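Single-chain item
Fold in token form
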Amino acid sequence: MAGGSDAVESTTLSCAKCGKPAHLQCPKCVELKLPREGAAFCSQDCFKVSWSSHKSVHSKSISSFAPVNPGEQNAASQNDGWLYCLRKGKARSHELPHFDWSGQLRPYPISKRRSIPDHIDQPDWALDGIPKIEPNSDLQHHVEIKAPDQIEKMRETCRIGREVLDAAARVIRPGITTDEIDAVVHEVTIAAGGYPSPLNYNFFPKSCCTSVNEVICHGIPDARKLEDGDIVNVDVTVYYKGVHGDLNETFFVGNVDESSQRLVQCTYECLEKAIAAVKPGVRFREIGEIINRHASMSGFSVVKSYCGHGIGDLFHCAPNIPHYARNKAVGVMKAGQTFTIEPMINAGVWRDRMWPDGWTAVTADGKRSAQFEHTLLVTFIGT
């Protein structure tokens, strides 16, 4: 919710939920320059309760100027900022890049970067896209044991992340664009007082990752409409009270074929089996053995180019958690450590390729990929 200059005068507007004098306004409505009537709220609680119905106002506004397909760029869409992403988010183009695409999916234009209210605590890359503390931190080389107050902050942040991902899941259906999913993630994160960690992280242009069909990870939300039979992974990270919480899930869009259902089910089971092994004394490399064994028995392959990671005050840090067998991860788990496990499982070969945007990793053979992720805390048994 916006404060300061975005505050609504209570003498002129009433809360859209309860009718009481309204002091706050939906930040997305401000960004889209929508009428203040119906966008004013008396409290965070009323805003959250009204979210499921209120968000449709934003979706209608966004879809009204989204390009129909990647080959049709008219003057109106260009003026509204719908352009193709290039060079890891540092450049934009009016033209679809030339590339030897591995599958049927193509990038679509993306909208302008979404704004963040001034009162939201922001990580050090928010303004210029460059992480300052993370790359040179000692935590890139040793695994931190979190203090009790850090753990509590991470629990709170991860709970917000869960709420954000659930909100995104509720809007997934044929016909919705991944940009609209990103809008939901952005708005719900801000409404909870958080910052969407991916936004401008090393110039990533959006507030979450949406990876469709053959996209393995780091897909950029754009103007493409989801189609019946697609699968889509939504990867959410929230920055709140100085710590990050990271999770993702793969969802079915409408009626999905049986082979895709088996892929997604196997990927979910890989994560569950890995989580069940987390406890003090277990080697980090063992996670990859567990995941690889289950995926291989199901006829699928495990992506090797991307891995789980330490998380806390930093978005990415030690340890690395490879998901494949015979990996060289060093160290053992200790109580108080936090990290992600996020297996990426492919229907075909494990190898990947990078799109011209510098972010979107896709399967080398164009077959589908699925992923699930949780942030884990190592505890003693029963704690």
Observations:
- The chain has a mean pLDDT of 89.
- Residues 280 and 333 are 5 Å apart (CA to CA).
